[in-house]
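Ticket #4471: complex job returned nothing on first submit. Input attached below:
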Amino acid sequence: MAEAKEPNPEFTRKVVEAGGKTVNLCFQCGTCTGSCPSGRQTAFRVRKVVRRAQLGFEEDVLPSEDLWLCTTCYTCYERCPRGVEIVDIIMALRNMAVRKGYMAEPHRKVAELISKTGHLVSLRDEDKALRKKLGLQETPPTVFADSSALEQVKKIGALCGFDKLIASGGK
Amino acid sequence: MAKYAFFLGCIMPLRYPGIESSTREVMKSLGVELVDMQGASCCPAPGVMRSFDQTYWLAVAARNLAIAEKMGTDVLTICNGCFDTLFEVAYKLNHDPELRKKINKTLRDAAGMEYNGTVNVRHFVELLYRDVGTEAIKARVKSGKNLRAAVHYGCHFLKPSNIKKIDDAERPHVFDDIVEAAGMTSVAYKDKGMCCGAGGGVRARTPDVALKMTKENLTNMTAAGVDVIVDCCPFCHLQYDSGQVQLKEFKIPVLHLSQLLGMAFGLDKEKLGLEVHQTKVAL
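Support reply: We reran it on our side without changes. The output follows.
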């Protein structure tokens, strides 16, 4: 017979500290899973993610692909009869997961683009041409048009350790 | 004339600049003045950035808020993602002096700026409903066009509703009312409040999963017999516009509300920037 896993309250405490402060309120009714648009298409079950966080099953929850199938649509958060702030829990778990190296390359690339350019979409010549045609400023009046403003954003990335995090892939 | 700091974000100015030109024109005609936020950046995006590092997410958003604060105006956005980040970060920083102190230290060291917690973040649909009003919109309509519209609220315009307090998240009406004021018919369809599929980093990481959600929405919209999808978020807009090309079986034109209003107000069609839409718009 398989042995039951021991809960790990230490990990649960870390989830609470990282922003998942309502995790212990969950009584596993499954309203979240029943409301989840992503769960309709995949085997992702929000209720299970919350349960694993609640019991402190770090090794089950942090490496799991499920953690990244949430679109953060907030439907479960709105409907939860216990007021569990589920999206905040998912975000806390994701912050912890990337620090363990569970960082998908497409996400790492998006993060890198923001830290280098201040935007998550590039400015191409064709974008400039269309902007001009529409009577808009060719280069948007953002960090794209102001290198000292971009330096400020880059410095925030350096001070927060964000640059290192994405350069190392969290490992 | 009411005046707002116009937050551009990323997808609108760079991939759908027609949404930007439409917004500028439509707001001007409704008496809302938009002022550019010099040196603003990505909000940063709630999907990947908040998932990676909430401190970085807070600090970069706080910098954007500090720019508006210095201008002495509230912020206006036409994107649900930008709205989510800026609204939530403003909410946290406006209500939590300890957190503000911590974030301000980073902001001072990196940018010589600080955020004092005085900015309100507005979504243009909510601004149109509450401040401009449907009667003022009706008064501007010139086209006489009556399209059957699938209104897509997206997720982060209304939710989390406990802090946004705009409308009932299960049965909202503010967006539909504006679309109807523009002369259109807002059509009921199955699972109308469902996510487009793109959010939370799902589109970037597992595009096939995102597309399955998009397909379900498109199937429900098609069953209701609609002429157009109307969104209030460039990311939902991108997902529906490019998603239909990938799925091949749908051809419903996608308009951002600012483009729909531009059309209804009789704006020069060139200003709507519809030629970059991947799903052809012939309305």
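Chain A touches chain B through 65 residues (CB under 8 Å). Closing as resolved unless it happens again.
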